[in-house]
């Protein structure tokens, strides 16, 4: 049930009406209805995995209660919770990868691979469960005794399939207090959903056939075309993923919830560290708290070398989180290597505020350099194998890089320009269409323009989102 599908629009319209108009004054009834709606939303994909979701929620719920007792067995319950959560993820997402890699390493033929279907959103809800367990262990959160609140936290349908990865400390309190719908928040939510739909249906879906054609036929194309494909894919993935996040956050806002901000205009990042602070924020902040910080503490005696190692390992995990493939692992490792000059020059945590009107020459240079690094790494992101990735890199570093690239379309460049302009105008706002500060006439004209673009240029056939596969 895609956010941009007619089925979801009908589902949410009915859900929204019942949720507010019939159940609006009864918190418990709202939470029961929210849970049923979340389960229906998830079962629409594959009802069999709903059993896994419900079973996992049950196990972690009771383990959380055991951990919160602070008894002598606390660490045992914590380890059981982590083993269960991580083990489930490893089995469904990485089992065949480990078997195949082991067999390749020792040159043996293996028939142990299984036809395992990856449950939708398992990486996202597993990380919610892990953070819940660790937060209770570290006394940052009390075990939730409200069954409805906890099960809703794990299965919350707006952010189930592709995040954001909300922590229990943010979402659980909101599930236990009365929610109020206001015209102001509803209008802001509608704006964000509109922008997300434009990004996905108009920008991402129009770029997708071009990048697919380029990467599937790279052997017969020039280096400039392959490089152009990597640049296009950056905008495709940004429009696709941030578009999903905009819609997810907007839908949650319509239901009275504030969720984690997932993007902060990463196209204007001044270096690679700035980029990762602004890209997929809920994942990077999760890893910073639960992986990177413990690694920094563990390696603190090794000064900058220890920091480099912590960064490198953190990004290997980032890469591996994206998928069970060596291409993703190398992708993560490359991101870690990008940080080396920043660590050496003590620039890893330096933040700079961009110019309000137009970027300076230095800012523009930093943006272009950072995006070049990002696009170079994205070749690994899209390549089906390392062999294909090296084949694409071989093309890019050939003399044909200096030829005129194919597939250049004015419409696509124009759409990318619109995204860049919208982001730049609102770069200091919460999201890209937070334009309440503009005059009503200006706002209405802009809404009309986006709706027109969706109706005229929108590609409705491709409803799937890139990050659903993770």
TrEMBL record:
<feature type="transmembrane region" description="Helical">
    <location>
        <begin position="367"/>
        <end position="386"/>
    </location>
</feature>
<feature type="transmembrane region" description="Helical">
    <location>
        <begin position="5"/>
        <end position="22"/>
    </location>
</feature>
<keyword id="KW-0012">Acyltransferase</keyword>
<feature type="transmembrane region" description="Helical">
    <location>
        <begin position="306"/>
        <end position="322"/>
    </location>
</feature>
<keyword id="KW-0808">Transferase</keyword>
<dbReference type="InterPro" id="IPR051085">
    <property type="entry name" value="MB_O-acyltransferase"/>
</dbReference>
<feature type="transmembrane region" description="Helical">
    <location>
        <begin position="42"/>
        <end position="64"/>
    </location>
</feature>
<feature type="transmembrane region" description="Helical">
    <location>
        <begin position="221"/>
        <end position="239"/>
    </location>
</feature>
<protein>
    <submittedName>
        <fullName>MBOAT family protein</fullName>
    </submittedName>
</protein>
<keyword id="KW-1003">Cell membrane</keyword>
<dbReference type="InterPro" id="IPR024194">
    <property type="entry name" value="Ac/AlaTfrase_AlgI/DltB"/>
</dbReference>
<keyword id="KW-1133">Transmembrane helix</keyword>
<feature type="transmembrane region" description="Helical">
    <location>
        <begin position="406"/>
        <end position="425"/>
    </location>
</feature>
<feature type="transmembrane region" description="Helical">
    <location>
        <begin position="279"/>
        <end position="299"/>
    </location>
</feature>
<keyword id="KW-0812">Transmembrane</keyword>
<comment type="similarity">
    <text>Belongs to the membrane-bound acyltransferase family.</text>
</comment>
<feature type="transmembrane region" description="Helical">
    <location>
        <begin position="328"/>
        <end position="346"/>
    </location>
</feature>
<keyword id="KW-0472">Membrane</keyword>
<dbReference type="InterPro" id="IPR004299">
    <property type="entry name" value="MBOAT_fam"/>
</dbReference>
<dbReference type="InterPro" id="IPR028362">
    <property type="entry name" value="AlgI"/>
</dbReference>
<dbReference type="Pfam" id="PF03062">
    <property type="entry name" value="MBOAT"/>
</dbReference>
<feature type="transmembrane region" description="Helical">
    <location>
        <begin position="76"/>
        <end position="96"/>
    </location>
</feature>
<feature type="transmembrane region" description="Helical">
    <location>
        <begin position="445"/>
        <end position="467"/>
    </location>
</feature>
<feature type="transmembrane region" description="Helical">
    <location>
        <begin position="116"/>
        <end position="134"/>
    </location>
</feature>
